[in-house]
Design brief:
CATH architecture of chain A: Up-down Bundle
Strand content of chain B: under 5%
Largest interface: A-B, 50 and 42 residues
Largest sheet of chain A: none
Distance between the termini of chain B: 76 Å
CATH topology of chain B: Four Helix Bundle (Hemerythrin (Met), subunit A)
CATH superfamily of chain A: Cytochrome c oxidase-like, subunit I domain
CATH topology of chain A: Cytochrome C Oxidase, Chain A
Helix content of chain A: 55-70%
Strand content of chain A: under 5%
Helix content of chain B: over 70%
Order of helices and strands of chain B: HHHHHH
Shape of chain B: elongated
Oligomer: heterodimer
Number of domains of chain B: 1
Number of strands of chain B: 0
Radius of gyration of chain B: 22 Å
Largest sheet of chain B: none
Order of helices and strands of chain A: HHHHHHHHHHHHHHHH
């Protein structure tokens, strides 16, 4: 049997054919598109707007916390700001970020497919997202909401006089958009892989998206039904969760976290997928322990469903169930650690190059590890009681969600930007941006670990004067972080016009997406590719390149 | 190299083969898997509210028993029968579409739609009765017999209206989809090569039926089981 290596594949010459961007023009060709690539771009634009909005609320909070007194925002406004920050960043930015933007764009190409299995449902999911997002924006305009992103009852149903129903309706709708994306990915991964692309030849990004999709499908409906019950309770004043009318507020918390804990994995698993791609590409090595990395995604998705009540240790659940949830929570660390060890092992003796995606991913690995280890602190029943509802928790989940998920998103954005747009971003500026994000992030959130451990509670607009120094550091870090996030907005837009032409495979990376032109043609490939190589076959590629050079 | 390349244009394109699929077999498998995955989501959706229902049934057995007595078991029973029959006609519609007999497919699809509409009619009759009995939760809710249990009886009725309402919404969507499928069957779209929409419709319909198979005993038959008569 002749073995065909990755290097033998004929690379498409760019720009000789029309690509997905210039195949047709006009607003309607975008708003009614069924092309997964264009839908990915629509998502990219929409979530960027939400990211800026959510970031604005975060900055305002940090400004308020510059001084111990509540002088910039009233406590009511502050309540609304942290609520809106949380809701916007989680439901409207992080949940759709990597799946709906990069997954939409890259996943079908990585599978050698022409599109996702259900292009119209894919477009529908974007419209649902937009309906949810506009509902959210409307709520911001007409006065906001102050329940915290967790919507805890009975405050949210009986006492809050802000726009709870509008907000929960927005989250409810955007949930369906998330479900439909997950559904599309699962069916596409099962049924539309190119000939020869077996499960164990799939890029690990695909495995990560598969695990993510499972969580989206099985957890989101629980949030949906919970929010329906919440809306009913608030609308007609009955006691589903209100203890005064016979309801049980703990039930709300159980059901809410049954979604919202797995939702953490909806945010972090895709970033882990990006990390595997980038680490292999920029070390020129096969990923260490492919099957372990692949199955650890599924293990995280599965274990993620068994740990929700660790958010409720002080909520009055039985101490025995708390012990079991504490015990189970430790287990999630195992597959996460397997990934970190495998990425690190891949780095070992690799020819590491320090391009921007790699900088973000190296940052990701470190920050995710910090977030994960402090997560173990919080899984420990006794220690959790000490730091519940303090800035320690805030710091912990920002290390996972910003240090992990957002860094992963930016890594993927830079890694695939040449493929998406056909242009290179300016490397020097991008490296500066990555550095600013890393420094700014740590300066913002590391002091919060200390603040939390010292006892500063979250969700207050004023605090004791002895906490000021650390808060000033945190606010200073937030301003650096803001600059770090604004930079890509500028230079990525700049690169659309002035960036160097990327070519088919600017990174010399292995994977089907790097065999088609940049930007890809409308149907991704001119001929259905046949895969005859293993995932991340960099050794074979380097060998082939070496032979070419020797000739 | 050319021997490992698949040429997409070798296929003769079926009018309903979408461009992203290689052939009708792949398209069919994707469609059915898509519906199965969607139904998994639906199970969790209904599962969440069923769990909440069960928890309150455990906490408030007396109120549940009293509220269960208010349900029209006869109407619910007839509706169960209607739905099970509609599942039979739906299954037959899938089979006949597969065999390519247009006339039989149309008859069975139409019968399914009719049974669906009958179900909704009977449900509307029950809703109307509950409304006039003051059993709609909220400010109009009236319960005089044992006032201390009123909030809990109301809680049962929240679940009753919520769960049957969600189910009825699924039925309305199902009937709407049937209208679309019937119009396609009328235009002879289906045959042995291409019948995926009918099969996918069938999967959805059977699922909505199965949801009712859970709701009927939960809401009509067992609320008082083990409390008043057990």
């Amino acid at each position: 049997m002749t073995s065909v290596t990755y290097h033998d594949v004929q690379f498409l010459e760019p720009a000789k054919t029309r690509n997905y961007l210039n195949v047709d023009y006009g607003a309607l060709s975008w708003l009614l598109t069924k092309d997964h690539k264009r839908i990915g771009i629509l998502y990219m634009v929409s979530i960027s707007v939400m990211f800026i909005l959510g970031g604005f609320f975060a900055l305002m909070m940090r400004l308020e916390l510059l001084t111990p007194e509540g002088d910039l925002l009233t406590s009511d406004t502050y309540n609304k700001f942290f609520t809106l920050h949380g809701i916007i960043m989680i439901f409207f930015f992080l949940i759709p970020s990597i799946p709906a933007v990069l997954g939409n764009f890259i996943l079908p190409i990585q599978l050698g497919a022409k599109d996702l299995a259900f292009p119209r449902i894919n477009l529908l999911s974007w419209y649902l997202y937009m309906i949810g997002a506009f509902t959210g924006l409307l709520v911001v305009i007409i006065g906001g909401v102050d329940t915290g992103w967790t919507f805890y009852t009975p405050f949210s149903t009986q006492y809050s006089n802000t726009h709870v129903i509008g907000t929960t309706f927005g989250a409810f709708i955007v949930g369906f958009s998330s479900i439909l994306t997950g559904l599309n990915f699962i069916v596409t991964i099962h049924r539309m892989r190119a000939p020869g692309l077996t499960w164990y030849r799939l890029p690990l990004f695909v495995w990560a998206m598969y695990a993510t999709s499972l969580v989206q499908l099985l957890a989101t409906p629980i949030l949906a039904i919970t929010l329906v019950m919440l809306m009913i309770e608030r609308f007609i004043h009955v006691g589903i969760f209100d203890p005064a009318l016979g309801g049980d507020p703990l039930l709300f918390q159980h059901m809410f976290w049954f979604y919202s804990h797995p939702a953490v994995y909806i945010m972090i698993l895709p970033a882990m997928g990006v990390a595997s791609e980038v680490v292999a590409a920029f070390t020129r090595k096969k990923i260490f322990g492919y099957t372990f990395v692949a199955y650890s995604s599924l293990a995280i998705a599965f274990l993620g469903f068994l740990v929700w009540a660790h958010h409720m240790f002080v909520a009055g659940i039985s101490v025995y169930s708390a012990m079991i949830f504490s015990f189970l929570s430790y287990f999630v660390a195992v597959p996460s650690a397997i990934k970190v060890f495998n990425w690190t092992a891949t780095l070992y003796k690799g020819s590491v190059s320090w391009q921007t995606p790699m900088l973000y991913i190296l940052g990701f690995i470190g920050l995710f590890t910090m977030g994960g280890v402090t997560g173990l602190f919080l899984a420990a029943l006794g220690l959790d009681v000490h730091v519940t509802d303090t800035y320690f928790v805030v710091a912990h989940f920002h290390y996972i969600m910003v240090g992990g998920a957002v860094m992963g998103y930016f890594a993927g954005l830079h890694y695939w930007w040449p493929k998406i747009t056909g242009r290179m971003y300016p490397e020097w500026w991008a490296r500066l941006g990555a550095l600013l994000v890393f420094v700014g992030f740590n300066l913002t959130f590391f002091p919060q670990f200390i603040l939390g451990y010292l006892g500063m509670p979250r969700r207050y607009h004023a605090y004791a004067p002895e906490f000021q120094v650390l808060n000033v550091m945190s606010t200073a870090g937030a301003s650096i972080l803001a600059v770090g996030y604004m930079l890509p907005l500028v230079y990525l837009l700049w690169s659309l016009r002035f960036g160097r032409k990327a070519g088919t495979n600017p990174w010399g990376a292995v994977g089907l997406e790097w065999t088609t032109s940049s930007p890809p043609p409308k149907d991704n490939f001119h001929e259905t590719p046949v895969v005859t190589w293993e995932a991340y076959d960099y050794p074979a590629m380097l060998k082939a390149m070496g032979e070419t050079q020797n000739v | 190299m050319s021997d490992v390349t698949v040429h997409a244009d070798e296929h003769v394109h079926h009018p309903f083969l979408q461009h992203q699929f290689e052939d009708l077999g792949q398209q069919h498998e994707a469609s059915t898997l898509g519906m199965w995955v969607f139904l998994a989501t639906e199970i969790l959706f209904f599962g969440g509210v069923l769990m909440a229902y069960w928890i309150y049934r455990t906490i408030y057995p007396e109120a549940w028993a009293l509220a269960g007595e208010q349900q029209n078991t006869l109407a619910g029973g007839i509706n169960t029968l209607v739905l099970i029959t509609s599942s039979l006609t739906m299954a037959l519609a899938v089979r006949t579409a597969q065999l390519g007999s247009r006339r039989a497919t149309l008859v069975f699809l139409f019968a399914t739609m009719l049974f669906g509409a009958t179900f909704l009619g009977i449900k509307a009759y029950e809703y109307n009765a509950h409304w006039h009995e003051g059993l709609f939760p909220g400010s109009h809710f009236t319960w005089h017999e044992n006032p201390e249990l009123a909030p809990k009886v109301q809680l049962f009725m929240v679940f009753y209206w919520g769960m049957t309402g969600l189910h009825a919404l699924h039925m309305v969507i199902g009937v709407g989809l049937l209208v679309w499928i019937i119009s396609r069957a009328w235009r002879s779209h289906f045959g042995p090569e291409y019948y995926s929409p009918v099969e996918v419709m069938g999967l959805y319909w059977h699922f909505v039926d199965i949801v009712w198979i859970f709701l009927f005993p939960f809401l009509y038959l067992i609320p008082h089981f083990g409390v008043l008569h057990g």
